[in-house]
Write a structure and sequence with these properties.
This is RCK C-terminal domain-containing protein. One of its GO terms (molecular function) is monoatomic cation transmembrane transporter activity. By secondary structure, the protein is mainly beta. The protein has a single domain, classed as Alpha-Beta Plaits (2-Layer Sandwich), CATH 3.30.70. It contains 1 helix and 3 strands; from the N terminus they run βββα. A 3-stranded antiparallel sheet has the order 2-1-3, with no helix packed on it. β1 (19-26) and β2 (29-32) form a beta hairpin.
């Protein structure tokens, strides 16, 4: 199933200021997340967020 963020970089996403994307796990291997990191289908994102931002971050990544 296609992700709504597939092919986008983290910099292109509307990530709340109260959230931080720390890593992207691809093929079982963690990678440090950077603004120019491009997301692929089946990637797992490790995010740190304040409680008020969790729903927004979750909906952002589908």
């Amino acid at each position: 199933e296609d992700s709504p963020c597939e092919g986008m970089t983290l910099a292109e996403l509307d990530i709340p200021k109260e959230a931080l994307i720390g890593a992207i796990v691809r093929d079982g291997k963690p990678r440090i997340a950077r603004g120019n990191s491009t997301l692929r289908d089946q990637d797992h994102v490790i995010a740190i967020a304040k409680p008020g931002s969790v729903d927004r971050v979750t909906s952002l990544f589908g």
